[in-house]
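Subject: two folds for Thursday's group meeting

Dear M.,

Sorry for the delay on this. The cluster queue was jammed most of the week, so I only got both jobs back this morning. I'm pasting them in the order they finished. Each block is the input sequence followed by the predicted structure tokens. Could you check whether the formatting survives your parser before we put anything on slides? The first protein is the one we discussed after the seminar.
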Amino acid sequence: MVDGSSAPVLDAKTKLYDHSFFHHYVNDSIVDHRSRGASLAIVVCTLQGLHLINEALGYPSGDMLLNHIALIIACNCRAEDLVARTGGRQFAICLGNSSTREADVLCHRLTTALDTSKNPVLRSDQATLQIDFGTSPLMTGDDASSMIHRASSRTWLQPLSRAS
């Protein structure tokens, strides 16, 4: 579905797609889904407290946590979804043929997967990590930027438990 103008570029730390490729992919998806009358949704996940983990436990621990979270997100998405690291502490997912309700279900599934994770950084008494989830459906006049902005501004905060 991606036209030849934007070759996939991977984020160096997580090996997920990067911000630029995600924008191109979402814009191409919007055109495709509109032409078919299909639904499209975006999920944005923002980590809160990553800088505190970096300060308390060191950047290698923060990087390990980023990779762990990237893997959990990717493993809980469908093969046809596109997962990207769109910022230092932000991930985004493009969900084709999905409603906002399906995007919300994914957010809850990700929360459960992260809560039950055995990652030692998440279990540390020095780690206080929360994750913001935001979703946005495709609306009239949308482009990638407007969908991502709307998802980023309509978030709910989900503290991650320390249960082992």
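Second protein, same layout:
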Amino acid sequence: MSNSLTFEAISEAQPGPKWKSRWDWSWPAYEAWFMARGGDDGPTRAECVSAIGQYMPELLDVHARLTNLAGGGDRAARFLSGWCPPVYLGGCSLAAHSKAGEVRLVRNYDLSPDLNEGLLLRSEWTGKPVMGMVEFLWGLSDGINASGLCIALAFGGRGEVGRGFGVTTIVRYLLETCESVAEAIARLRKLPSHMAYNLVMADASGRVASVELLPGGGIRLMTAPVATNHQHGPETADRASFTKTRERRTHLEHLIANDMSPPQLRDNFLIEPLYQREYSKGFGTLFTADYDPVHLAVTLLWPGQSWVQSLHSFKEGVRTIDYSDTLETTTDLPDFTSPEAWTNWPTPGVNDWADYGMRIARLFEPRTNNIPEVPANFEWSRSRVTSSA
């Protein structure tokens, strides 16, 4: 697993060399995933293009241009259509809130650093300026358009699959064609999703909403404008205890019920229980996105740093985020006041014994906390400690 992720902000009004460069870089991995997950056994190219024409006609030309840039192959065309894609999962916490003229949509994106493109793209593919975090090379996990409509997605918690579009393609379509939350909800009633996903939306008027998308089509409107990784039908969410989806949703509902200010809401996404640290298990917070529909802006946040972008003042750039300092330790320190802890020590699973020993020392000398840090060039073997210095 990588301990870092490079985020890039790119502006390209129409699909061109910048998008093509990202395609060339990302497609080998996506193609391998597509084939390994049975993508070649899915709908034909003609069926995929027909589905776009039926449900998303405004994106037919965009799909054709992207396919041409990608080389024009059938597999690329089918992948880019987003129609009946292979199963994919994720995490995420979402909330929207409006108070005293301030409106925000805030999301945490929870996954492994190896599984995110790290691309913030500003485009005008259908004539409407759109800015958002790219997934599957042209879909969006979250974004905002020039009308002030903001949308973000979260996995709905189960692997059931129906005939429909991948949710990132749906988010792209809504931001390309809708101006308000009400219009987006109306379009969602006619758009089938291939899996269970949750969307939270906000617009410049202050309207907020949470919608559950059902596999194969159909939606549920939620009362509270929040979402995590389960839904509210009779279905059971997968890995609910591991993702703590119900605890996170309860926490979000509490924050909204307390009517806190949008900045306070954002700050809560950077701390537990919303901020996740299980990176090695594919469930760490890669970024927090704070969307402002009134000022058409987004702030990407990480502990101790932020990156502000807007549709009117977008600046290309690169940020590399190191998650090493926020990684959850592989093994917790035992309670050394317990005889059983000493019986079972040393603890299996520790892969950095020098660091483990230093943490034990700090545990027993908390008042001074003057134990030296482990040198970066230290290495540990079972027979000796060596240094490359």
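Two things I noticed about the second structure. The radius of gyration is 23 Å. DSSP finds eleven helices and 18 strands in the chain.

Cheers,
T.
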